[in-house]
Amino acid sequence: MSNPGKTLSLDENRLFPSDPTQRAIARRLYAQVAGLPIVSPHGHTDPAWFAGNAPFANATELLLVPDHYVFRMLYSQGVPLDALGIPRADGRRAPVDPRQAWRVFAERFHLFRGTPSSLWLNHVFHEVFGLRVRLDAGTADHYYDTITAALQGDAFRPRALFERFNIEVIATTEGPLDTLEHHQAIADSGWNGRVLTAYRPDAVVDPEHEEFAGALERFGDITGEDVHSWEGYLRAHRNRRGFFKAMGATSTDHGHESAMTADLSAAQARELFGRIVSGRFSAGEAALFRGQMLTEMAAMSLDDGLVMQLHPGCHRNHNPTLFRRHGRNIGADLPLVSEYVRGLKPLLDRFGNEADFRLILFTLDESTYSRELGPMAGHYPCLYLGPAWWFHDAPEGMWRFREQTLSTAGFYNTVGFNDDTRAFLSIPARHDVARRVDCAFLARLVAEHRLDEDEAAELAVDLAYRLPKQAYKL
Amino acid sequence: MSNPGKTLSLDENRLFPSDPTQRAIARRLYAQVAGLPIVSPHGHTDPAWFAGNAPFANATELLLVPDHYVFRMLYSQGVPLDALGIPRADGRRAPVDPRQAWRVFAERFHLFRGTPSSLWLNHVFHEVFGLRVRLDAGTADHYYDTITAALQGDAFRPRALFERFNIEVIATTEGPLDTLEHHQAIADSGWNGRVLTAYRPDAVVDPEHEEFAGALERFGDITGEDVHSWEGYLRAHRNRRGFFKAMGATSTDHGHESAMTADLSAAQARELFGRIVSGRFSAGEAALFRGQMLTEMAAMSLDDGLVMQLHPGCHRNHNPTLFRRHGRNIGADLPLVSEYVRGLKPLLDRFGNEADFRLILFTLDESTYSRELGPMAGHYPCLYLGPAWWFHDAPEGMWRFREQTLSTAGFYNTVGFNDDTRAFLSIPARHDVARRVDCAFLARLVAEHRLDEDEAAELAVDLAYRLPKQAYKL
Amino acid sequence: MSNPGKTLSLDENRLFPSDPTQRAIARRLYAQVAGLPIVSPHGHTDPAWFAGNAPFANATELLLVPDHYVFRMLYSQGVPLDALGIPRADGRRAPVDPRQAWRVFAERFHLFRGTPSSLWLNHVFHEVFGLRVRLDAGTADHYYDTITAALQGDAFRPRALFERFNIEVIATTEGPLDTLEHHQAIADSGWNGRVLTAYRPDAVVDPEHEEFAGALERFGDITGEDVHSWEGYLRAHRNRRGFFKAMGATSTDHGHESAMTADLSAAQARELFGRIVSGRFSAGEAALFRGQMLTEMAAMSLDDGLVMQLHPGCHRNHNPTLFRRHGRNIGADLPLVSEYVRGLKPLLDRFGNEADFRLILFTLDESTYSRELGPMAGHYPCLYLGPAWWFHDAPEGMWRFREQTLSTAGFYNTVGFNDDTRAFLSIPARHDVARRVDCAFLARLVAEHRLDEDEAAELAVDLAYRLPKQAYKL
């Protein structure tokens, strides 16, 4: 078969240092972790995939439309989201042939050179679909046809891929109003894939969330609590956390604009909540309420044992034109300057020394790694550091995370890798990148005689497998 | 001839990794870009040099007096600016023999070890003047004599050097009051060196600029507009932008204390401008006016197609003693904490999605690379990232720029290199450093199997040549 | 003797790059500095050790109890400070067998993998105590017995170790109320070890220090000045600075929450001081007073020639529960966002250009290295950069310090290494790490042809020995 494309290969030494000493060590370390099961304690895959186990539609639907890493880059280079078939805010789409959208992407695949998206996608192309030519304008149709055809087979249905990917456990993320019906369906189905949920209450915790008022109503309906009273509102959270936990959840997750926390008296909190439910509150009061709710969630974690995650510091929906046209999650979120030392103090003053409380911190502001997060995690018993997140989830970002937190937090105040993705097919690729980068990092420490290789080998397994299970109680 | 100095050499592998795998790749990549013409889309050379083509005076006048990178370091180690013959604020100078000033510099050349100045200067010494001993106290006179003698020859006149340096196009930077007579003279001369201007209106945009009031008067005179009315003032800008464009300009440049922008209504803007021209305004109003003017300039860019550059975040003239004695641009400028996500929002809300608008962002605050600039450029169609700037224009700074923007902005939302210099002779050295560092960076990606070498080779040419031409419409 | 542990070795190439070219250069550079005497211009060893020369008690008392780097990490992983025998705020301790505390530590020594503590401790174990097995649960008693036994011998008394460590000079740090009796005793003893003090007046400069009121009283008593008047208070400082200088001090040190300075008129300062001594002041006034005192201290430095050090940006005692239980210095200090360009301006406006004034700046916020500190030190004659400090005093932190300050400050606006420690035995280890990292850094510059090796060799000696002596006037 004559194929016009250039060869696509995945070198077995990819992401390892080229220095022969370091590379040899990295290879030996990686050999011990390459085959370990995937533990995915935080992410955004859709439980409906595993409940329904329906085949994915085509290359564009599977790999392009859900991946904001991909279409944000294309958009930055002048491709309208409509040309890719990204849904509008009203759920409708521009009339775009998915093959044509794929071509638009393929012609511009060079834009991703050096980015993590190219690492992940090439891994998927090569390992999942067996493609052996590089993606470009000339191979666009070959790709589209190959992928779309493969997706029709049973081996490419969600559960089959889950098993093929050697996923031991995966957590999805649901809002407090979610009925968890897909998780129930999975449990009822007899399939033994382990798909957990996590409690993410932002829509009923952030008074500035566009769905807050309606979500609060339904929060009352679903829990039978008077959620317009402070005590009832808190009980409603306890109620839903209990339900999520009963459905397998081991963690909660909180996406806040900042890591600011508060520790108001009950009377102050009640009064603040009154203003919040009245709808007449200032931006400062909204922020204070969110901060107070972090402390309340920590208190509940102490009771129910759910591990708390905090993902702060994102300016959501920065682009109002696109927000109006296409809604949320279309790549227009941007990192903000973040602060933790003063922001988390109210929460830590209450719960920082509790051995049974666990708070995993993330950041989009890397200047906090060495200045705040490492030193904090290296002191407070409750604090752990989540891995390099979102914009920083690339080999360079992972390396900076390790390099800037190691001296103060060590390895054992970190929690291993999170793929944090809705791009299901990229999960093995993402974990593979993380494992390779950690092995490369450890190899350097060994080559420079800061660790013995047996210690590095133990660490490699800890980072890839043991720490996430432990940190997330999986 | 017996020469007392140590050997000065420029190793052909300088700035390449010492790892043999990476070095070999870097050499191959560099071989493809080493001979490319220089595209210099932003800088501060003096167009009078190319208009008049007069010889440079001597080593001190050419290499020491105009280079604040050099004399700031000497000053930091106790050398008074007068000892180097740096002009006073009134234009006069201390009575210093230029040879003696050169000796002061030569005796302290070790202070520059490891700095970009030593890279650039040694390149100039070796390549432009053929010197083969290192500069130090013992070789000071040899240097002074060799350089000063060479400058008398026709081969060292500005136009001859321009051609020898293989400069395809260079942009200078002029204020809105500039008559561009030198650019006109160059055009009229029949010489085919391409020397463009760029529109830098700071003196009539920043109400706190010490020349603002007078500059505004002359801005009215030169344009024939009533620049004390908001509409007339804006028309005056359009007028001068048009003139600059007619004279070849393809870009504007804006040096602001911050990246804060505003998007006032016409009525609010008119009222604010009224306070500005009255001279009775607060610091906050001055800042707001500057922010509004960035948005106005963006609007004009959309009309006339001039590419907009923003160089924010510098505390100018930090040292008041030196400012009184020696004026501006004497090395006492310092970087400030910078913010872009919130600051640029008003401008981006209006023009962020315009395909025909182009805004190139620079920073002196590297913590914004991964936190703000990379993610922003990787989303907004109008945004591009200028290269590592000023204090960061060193191999380490260039490397950090790439490493911290690659994963979110890729390579194709960057614009190649700017030398941004008034040190004409250093231009080939600076471009050579940039090309070498980019090749070294790419070589690492290839050696770690993240790019194929043919992709890296294309990228090397893109970064050195194609992207600046494209980004700046050259 | 059958020993169950794994081999502990200190590779002679530790911390050197594994690239053979770079490693060979690093080894040659290091050979020239490995044996140089230790110059320790800033630290927290106890002068009583050298005055009394009593033996240290046991492994736990020597290596665990005084080292907050060690017990903060253990605490972060759930070990109560009481289990380690860390003193309570009232001076008493939980009844803990030191051997048992040592076991708790030994069982968790893997937590320190990759951290500077493991580098330092393994160096001490291997070089000072001749241990050849790794520390872990199985070797805990072997370690405890070996170390504790060794400490009984004369060779392990403080003065013998001082000599064995080849310390040319060491500075301790004392408060203004200190009688310096131990320094006097050392001077009177005829022992020729050079142990200097440094003037650290925080307790009488920071109105929010918990001991301020009482310390101020005693400050009056000890100096015979009316310290409730502004002029008397300043005279008291001059008095104590003079006494410290007479006792050998060459420097002062200032630990402030920020680098903010002020330059009030005498009348304003007098009025502010009145509010401070009245005890009725706001947080802003306390901060303003601290800022004013930095400028006053600079003025005094100009008179008496003491070198000024500023260690800003730390949130002390972040954990109120632990502060109540165990007091200060128990590992609960955290870095804060820091700013220098605007903060230091008032002080620099007055003294920035003084050739006889010297101010050494430190930071806990690494984002200031390239943004503020490097550019400032590369301009102001009075400014020098202290080395990577506290949380950043690790190989990676040292490397970032060099990499991010080199291009703007060069090497010669830095002051070599500070061990800044109260862990006496770790001093040779810490200096060795610093020397190795600097040699590795220089080796890379040589291998990439940015320095000649003879220049790097000179620099290696400058950084390890000449610069600290010069900067601190030792």
From TrEMBL, chains A, B, C:
Identify the EC number(s). Answer: 5.3.1.12
Catalytic activities: aldehydo-D-galacturonate = keto-D-tagaturonate; D-glucuronate = D-fructuronate
Query: Any idea which UniProt keywords this protein has?
Result: Isomerase
Kindly list the GO molecular function terms attached to this UniProt entry.
isomerase activity
Determine the domain of life of the protein's source.
Answer: Bacteria
Q: Does the keyword Isomerase apply?
A: yes
- Look up keyword Isomerase and say if it applies: yes
Q: Sorted alphabetically, which Pfam families does this protein's record hold? A: UxaC
InterPro entries (UniProt xref): Metal_Hydrolase (IPR032466), Uronate_isomerase (IPR003766)
Pathway(s) annotated for this protein in UniProt: Carbohydrate metabolism; pentose and glucuronate interconversion
> Which parts of the chain are coiled coil?
none
Q: What family does the database annotate?
A: Belongs to the metallo-dependent hydrolases superfamily. Uronate isomerase family.
Entries under HAMAP family matching the protein: UxaC (MF_00675)
Q: What is this protein called?
A: Uronate isomerase
Per the UniProt record, the source organism is Stenotrophomonas nitritireducens
What is the gene name?
Answer: uxaC
